[in-house]
Amino acid sequence: MNPHLSNNDMPPIDQPVVWEPADAEEALALKREHGANAVWVAGGTLLRTQWEGGIAAIPAHMIRLDTIEGMRSIIDETDYVQVGSLATLKQCGQHAALQQYANALYMACRHIAAPAVRNLATIGGNVASAVGDALPALLVHDASLLWIDGEHTPLHHEQAAVDWMEQVRIGRRSLHAVLLGIRFPKGPVISGHLPVQSSVAVESTPVDLSANAVSFWIDEHGERWRELCFFRKLGRREAFTPSLVTVAMRCWISESGELTRVRVAAGGGSGLAMRLLQCELMLEGRMYDATWLPELARVAAQEFSSYSDPFAEAPYRQQSAGNLLAAGLWESIRDMEEGR
Ligand SMILES: Cc1cc2nc3c(=O)[nH]c(=O)nc-3n(C[C@H](O)[C@H](O)[C@H](O)COP(=O)(O)OP(=O)(O)OC[C@H]3O[C@@H](n4cnc5c(N)ncnc54)[C@H](O)[C@@H]3O)c2cc1C
Questions:
Q1: Do 47 and 108 lie in a common domain?
Q2: Which in 138, 144, 222, 257 has the greatest CB count within 10 A?
Q3: What's the domain range around 231?
Q4: Residue 253: is its pLDDT beyond 80?
Q5: Whose CA is nearest to atom 15 of ligand 1?
Q6: Is it the case that residue 13 has pLDDT exceeding 60?
Q7: What is the 3-state secondary structure (H, E, C) of the chain?
Q8: For the FAD-binding PCMH-type domain, which residue ranges apply (predicted)?
Q9: Residue 277 sits in a domain of what CATH number?
């Protein structure tokens, strides 16, 4: 434990004490000791804007997480890709395994903030803030979160991102949990409506730098299914701007145009990301046809619960989410048809 005091031995009033834990257990102990007077700091990019904007008070104790070893790497395992919570957005937006197996996250990380911010900002801070633009991507990839949590037995546990979002929504997230990493399962997602058995072979394709779809599998009838995955963000400017709305979608499409294992999510701004289950139900097992895209936009707009602020009214965000989804699906399929 290595506290950095701002001046000699005693901190002047209003100057926070900065702690440098060597491991996550020590970070938990510091939080337990200082409670609501302490915050975890990863890249500090979001916290700084909150402090500078007067949205949050500068805390008496800052607990650095970037002094903890072993939370920066992105590991490509057989069944999943694991991203350490201290991996920067830049790292995530450049990693080949994420491009292939968690393409919506890869794309999200390339569209959050500006390059200078992405050098510092971590994926853990984006997720743990509960309002980061990466969250819809986590939801469509069925990602799970790896926690060390002082309020949980056992201390270390893995939790589906969708379940954690629900805890946040109902105000029951643990305030004594450090996010250690995020796991993205590879291959087809588990669904109640599988047209194939779990023994189906998954084939990897060479990574295509431009295309959204990144892998195929062949079902027991020999039909080839291709992954379709996209992320879209709407901001107040073209680039380097906080989002008004973000959407992500992932599914598999057969050569005959049937969609399956559909995941749809929306979020953005300071709203909470959510899965759009009615959209998923509408698309599951359906043959793609551009004529029903306006219906998809309508269902998504109805289902997405958003909020109003001085920048945009809730109905605008809802309608935008629907339009982004319909347009994203249309563009992705057009790109596939054109071999991009
Ligand atoms: C100019 C600018 C533009 C931005 N644009 C965007 C944007 O387009 N989209 C977007 O989503 N964000 C944007 N941000 C916000 C921010 O940069 C990102 O959300 C970033 O990923 C946050 O990561 P961080 O490491 O800096 O988090 P921090 O600021 O260090 O922390 C954020 C929150 O998460 C908590 N936290 C951090 N790490 C952990 C952990 N491992 N376990 C538990 N809690 C943790 C902190 O206590 C804090 O509450 C922008 C910021 C700036 C300054």
A1: no
A2: 138
A3: 202-337
A4: yes
A5: 46
A6: no
A7: CCCECCCCCCCCCCCCEEECCCCHHHHHHHHHHHHHHEEEECCCHHHHHHHHCCCCCCCCEEEECCCCCCCCCEEECCCEEEEECCCEHHHHCCCHHHHHHCHHHHHHHHHCCCHHHHHHCEHHHHHHCCCCCCHHHHHHCCCEEEEEECCCCCCEEEEEHHHHHHHHHCCCCCCCEEEEEEEEECCCCCCCCCCCCCCCCEEECCCCCCCCCCEEEECCCCCEEEEEEEEEEEECCCCCCCEEEEEEEEEEEECCCEEEEEEEEEEECCEEEEECHHHHHHHCCCECCHHHHHHHHHHHHHHCCCCCECCECHHHHHHHHHHHHHHHHHHHHHHHHCCC
A8: 10-189
A9: 3.30.390.50
Whose Cα sits closest to atom 6 in ligand 1?
113
pLDDT at 269: 86
With respect to residue 293, please indicate whether it lies within any of the assigned structural domains: yes
CA 133 – ligand 1 centroid, Å: 10
Pocket of ligand 1 (CB under 6 A): 39-47, 49, 65, 85, 89, 112-113, 117, 121-122, 124-126, 128-129, 132-133, 178-179, 242-243
Q: Whose CA is nearest to atom 43 of ligand 1?
A: 178
Domain CATH code at residue 171: 3.30.465.10
* Count: domains in the chain: 3
